[in-house]
Amino acid sequence: MFVFGNVLQGVAHVIDWALSLYLWVVIARALISWVNPDPWNPIVQFLDRVTEPVLAPIRRKVGFGMGLDLSPIIVILIILFLQYALVQTLFQMAAQLR
């Protein structure tokens, strides 16, 4: 069973890393949106393509509060919840299988 525990721990690390990376991408998108970016810039286009599929549905449900886009904050909170709930659960399950 220790092999499955090691695989599960590896999966937990990859998920944690991917969530952390996406967290920084969402933060970068939010920061860039404050300065009226050039829409033809490749970095701006990349950030838009990567984050818009996640931010758009939340933006539609939450709407704009006083002209403020709260969707990046909600996505950040969801990512942090997944890191604490899902990733930590996977780490604990892996530890029990060792």
Structure, explained:
This protein has 98 residues and is mainly alpha-helical. It has one domain (2-96). The protein is 81% helix and 4% strand. The chain has three helices and two strands. It has helices at residues 2-33, 42-62, 71-96, and strands at residues 64-65, 68-69. A two-stranded antiparallel ribbon has the order 1-2. Strand 1 (64-65) and strand 2 form a beta hairpin. The radius of gyration is 17 Å and the shape is elongated. The chain starts with a helix and ends with a helix.
Descriptors for this entry?
about 100 residues, mainly alpha, 3 helices, two-stranded antiparallel sheet, 2 strands
Brief summary of the model shown:
This protein has 98 residues and is mostly helical. The protein contains 3 helices and 2 strands; from the N terminus they run ααββα.
Number of helices: 3
Largest sheet: 2 strands, antiparallel
Q: Provide the structure class.
A: mainly alpha
Going across the biggest sheet, name each strand in turn.
Answer: 1-2
Order of SSEs: HHEEH
Beta-sheet strand percentage?
A: under 5%
Shape: elongated
- Per DSSP E runs of 2 or more residues, the count of β-strands stands at 2
Instruction: Kindly provide the radius of gyration, computed on alpha-carbon positions and rounded to a whole number of angstroms.
Output: 17 Å
How much is the average pLDDT? Answer: 92
Question: Topology of this structure?
Answer:
Elements: H1 2-33, H2 42-62, E1 64-65, E2 68-69, H3 71-96
Antiparallel strand pairs: 1-2
Helix pairs in contact: 1-2, 1-3, 2-3
